[in-house]
Amino acid sequence: MLGWLGLALRLAAAPPPSVPELQRQLATAPADTNRVLLLNNLCWQLGTQNTVQAQAYGQQGLRLARRLGFRLGEVYSLSSLARAAYLQHDELAASRYYQQAVRRAERVPRAARQLTLALLGLGRVAMEQQDFAEGERYFRLALGRMQHHRHAVTPTDLGMVQNHLASLYADWRRSGRPAPDSLSRLGAHYARLAVATFRRLPPDDKLAAALNGMGEVHALAGRC
Q1: Using CB atoms within 10 A of its CB, is residue 13 exposed (0-12), middle (13-18) or buried (19+)?
Q2: pTM of the entire structure?
Q3: Contact 182/168 with Cβ under 8 angstroms?
Q4: Number of domains forming the structure of the chain
Q5: What is the pLDDT of residues 59-77, one digit of tens each?
């Protein structure tokens, strides 16, 4: 158990190893919890490059985690598989994996943050399908967990959910679908919160995205 915890801490503290380096480590790794984390990391990194490979590594990690009874590793693997499916525009598979991640994470105290991120993932899937009410529900569940300190919350995580809500309300207004009268106010509120949160961090693409979202909110308001 200390072995996988040590690996997790090293991965969190250092820049992520490259895919070739992870593959070299995997070649000699025994079938233990460390191997689950290596497979999960490969699934995550390859999700934007080679979805077939990403899914293969993720499935291997998921099977091994289940065989070992490594519940946290199972949650990680399900979340990475969901992300890979979402990036492949397979919303059905992404939703299925995220739902499984939520159910598993609810029984694993150390997976509290992963539970919140899985709820965010379900919100993104619903938003992609233009089921805005469902997306709002998942995003608000995730935000509520952060506000009630269900786990340690970073400004990046908080700003991410705030920006997702701002984007959802903007997309909902643009869609022309039936919507509450409060959309404009809510969109502006969460856009401002996201900008304020990301301004606490060094400037990067997250702040740029939040500022762009605020610009969209103002543009939509100008059309009313």
Answers
A1: exposed
A2: 0.87
A3: no
A4: 2
A5: 999 999 999 999 999 999 9
